[in-house]
Sequence to fold (260 residues):
Amino acid sequence: MNINPKRMLFMKSNGGTSGASKGGKGTKSQTAPMVMIQGQQISQAVIDANRGTRDHMQMKSTTWQDIQADYARIGVTISEEQAKKIYTAVRHFTFLHDTKMRKAWKKEQDGRSLTPLEQKELEEYKLCAEYCKIAPTIPSSNYDYVYRGIKFSSTTPEYAQRLVSLKVGDSWDVDGMPTSFSTSFQTAKYFSMNMTTGTKGIVVHMPNKTLKNAPSIKGISHYPGENEVFVADYNWKISSISDQRTTGDGYYHLYLEPGK
Fold:
């Protein structure tokens, strides 16, 4: 498995089809909201009807031309230069920039000023977030869940503890940020383990059938073995909890379902 052991990512199968298949997982509606894409107001119904699905692709098989075609599919024309910027932004996210991008996003949300480098990370992260809104979705017919592994980290213990404090029925919005998951349960477990202490962490189980803004980025990623899915769906609640830290497999399992 081609995994970067230094990335605190979080991430079922290794299939793949070329291109995008029609028939995304959204629902059409006459009153669907409008979404800002490349400075244009696009109906969510148009996006849902045309984005389609795309399974995991092989290493480096997704190109800037595919991204350009993904935008064209929903009626938005972007230049080669812009398509390459989006491609680069997604690739950077998968290569040690994910934490930097998320920190820059949070800093802006808190109203704090950003350094020029942080501003660049934020601009790329916003391109990633927009691409999640229009890209073909990972097909639910092939994967029941996507997974994210989270460590009990000594550097950020409050985040894991906050998740453990959640109860059945509580809401969780994935921090309102585009976030990396995986179709591989084993990958999620790998990234949730603290390699220094051997402590097993949290595995989040997100049902795939309700995902909309969640493309596979395996064909772009520096680490395709992670079977990465870029999730920008935020309305969730805890459906069940299975604490197996002292019995079972040793992990703390959180199962999600769509919120209201």
Remarks:
- Helices lie at 44-50, 64-73, 80-109, 116-134, 157-164, 185-192.
